[in-house]
Amino acid sequence: MPKLVLVRHGQSFWNLQNRFTGWVDVPLTEKGKEEAFKAGELLKDIRFNVAYTSALTRAQETLRIILEVIGLQIPVIKDQALNERHYGALQGLNKDRARQKYGAEIVHLWRRSYDIAPPEGESLKDTAARTIPFLERAILGDIYEGNDVLVVAHGNSLRSIIMYLEKLTPEEIIKVELDTGVPIVYEMDKEGNVLNKEIRRH
């Protein structure tokens, strides 16, 4: 049975500084690189055929480290459809400062609602509108062919994929939190249905 593995990138500098990152291209911290290394160690039993990542450095670097640890050289497809949710006017802003500026309730709504977007930014629903067509067209295309697929992307682009795969409601997905560098391994059938899910941690 083909496997689809999702990994949120390792810790970035702006994760560390508690800032909204979105589409800003922020590199990994040393801890982020270590998380990527550990993810690679946890995935050594899977011989991936292809990998997908976003157009952002933190995801690409995490993927590079994972493949290096596993010892694989495979095709890597980069697409901004897998980019993090665009946080608009919040990008670069410390989350505590954002609460002071806009109010804690509205910031919580922007972060945790399904369809309310921050100023000039995307909601999770908007993110899913670009992520899911790419998932159906490209990523699941590989699953249908029986390939093992690795996707290294971002908290919100991966949440939209998880919502689709696990058939979650908007209310259910907003409660889902993804840790950096922790692989989620789905066993799939060739029709794209989830047969089993495993979260791998050290």
TrEMBL record:
Pathway: Carbohydrate degradation; glycolysis; pyruvate from D-glyceraldehyde 3-phosphate: step 3/5. Its EC number is 5.4.2.11. It catalyses: (2R)-2-phosphoglycerate = (2R)-3-phosphoglycerate. GO terms for biological process: gluconeogenesis; glycolytic process. The keyword RNA-binding does not apply. InterPro entries: His_Pase_superF_clade-1, His_PPase_superfam, PG/BPGM_mutase_AS, Phosphogly_mut1. The record marks 154 as: Transition state stabilizer. The active site is at residues 9, 84. It comes from the Bacteria. The keyword ATP-binding does not apply. Pfam families: His_Phos_1 (PF00300). Substrate binds at residues 8-15, 21-22, 58, 84-87, 95, 111-112, 155-156. Keywords: Gluconeogenesis, Glycolysis, Isomerase. GO terms for molecular function: phosphoglycerate mutase activity. Catalyzes the interconversion of 2-phosphoglycerate and 3-phosphoglycerate. Belongs to the phosphoglycerate mutase family. BPG-dependent PGAM subfamily. HAMAP family: PGAM_GpmA. This is 2,3-bisphosphoglycerate-dependent phosphoglycerate mutase. It comes from Sulfurihydrogenibium azorense (strain DSM 15241 / OCM 825 / Az-Fu1). The gene is gpmA.
